[in-house]
Amino acid sequence: MSNATPATGPHSANPAITTTSSVHDGPAIEAEGLRRGYSGGFEAVRGISFSVRRGEIFALLGTNGAGKTSTVELLEGLAAPSAGTARVLGHDPHRERAAVRPRIGVMLQEGGFPPELTVAETVRMWAGCTTHARPAAEALGATGLSGREGVRVKQLSGGERRRLDLALALLGRPEVLFLDEPTTGLDAEGRRDTWELVRALRDAGTTVLLTTHYLEEAETLADRLAIMHRGRIVLSGTPAQVTAARPARIRFTLPAGVPAGRLPLRLRAAEDAGRVEIRTTSLQDDLAALLRWAQEEGVRLDGLDARSASLEEAFLDIAAAAETVTDAPTPEPETAR
User: pLDDT tens-digit profile of 16-48?
Assistant: First the structure.
């Protein structure tokens, strides 16, 4: 493995954020026609294709049972695909595991570390299995666990255990980092700190693939994302591209005695107990028309709120639409997540 390269970018002051260079020039992660089936005929991943560029944060989203974890396990080399191909840093992660494993970091949903070991003992144990492991103090400092070295794993809070999971995933200065629900159990401050760390890793050249149920997290962190539903990718792109295709909304309350029917005809509105909502694909033009009308009519728009669609709104709309065109649900085994 080549020597560590210092980080660059806004977070480069953090000495723990280093990565390793590579001669591989193609995408860091590639999936082509990827499928994964389980006994009983259930297919958790149904022919998906996508790629992740080097130095990119890519989020894989979907409802429970969409196939996210099954997909990530294929990319990590933990299982062989039923069909299709997976490539990580130019290698098959399952058949060429020895070439891939030293160059990736994996943060699982649940670490499962021996509860009687201290944090320091756990890190030393993990470092013994890691190629060119960084000093434990660096990994613990980067994840906010400095000063907790002597605490037993069983005494850590849920959020601290997630921090330990992340620290261990960073020990080998990975070129590709897989994060499965990285901020579950963290408080708001811990979540923000983790976001900053992930951005710093990206700025230092690490490729990050994450799954998350926090759509704000994906919208904040991801350079690109894909939304899965029942084993298929139904939409992909940048967060801005995904939300741009959804209508923006304008909400306000009309005064008593002023019905929504008095609004300009171009503003198609829904009203519920005086609270009005307008969905629009021309937010600026329709908001301007609404404000002109209100000024001309002398109408006060209480609680006026205008905003583009959020990733959460887009996700819920996409999931609902996908649900109407897919087959009836198939019972999913416990191992297919």
Answer: 455 555 555 789 999 999 999 998 889 999 999
C-beta of residue 249 within 8 angstroms of C-beta of residue 306: yes
Report angle CA 141, 147, 148 to the nearest 5 degrees: 95
For 215-269, give the DSSP string.
HHHHHHH-SEEEEEETTEEEEEE-HHHHHHTSPEEEEEEPPTT--GGGS-TTS-E
pLDDT tens-digit readout, 50-62: 999 999 999 999 9
Pairwise CA distance, residues 18 & 3, whole Å: 10
Q: Which residues pair with 326 in a beta bridge?
A: none
CA distance 273 to 253: 9
pLDDT for res 335: 42
- Mention every residue, 6+ apart, whose C-beta is less than 8 A from residue 217: 59, 183, 191, 195, 210
Q: What is the pLDDT of residues 108-134, one digit of tens each?
A: 877 778 899 999 999 999 888 888 889
Alpha carbon distance 188, 164 (integer Å): 17
Between the alpha carbon of residue 20 and those of residues 99, 100, 123, 176, the distances in Å are 14, 13, 20, 10
Q: Are 204 and 18 within 8 A, CB to CB?
A: yes
Evaluate whether 3 touches 132 at the Cβ level (below 8 Å): no
* HEC string for 282-330: CHHHHHHHHHHHHHHHCCCCEEEEEECCCHHHHHHHHHHHHHHHCCCCC
pLDDT at 194 over 70: yes
Q: Strand, helix or coil at 115?
A: coil
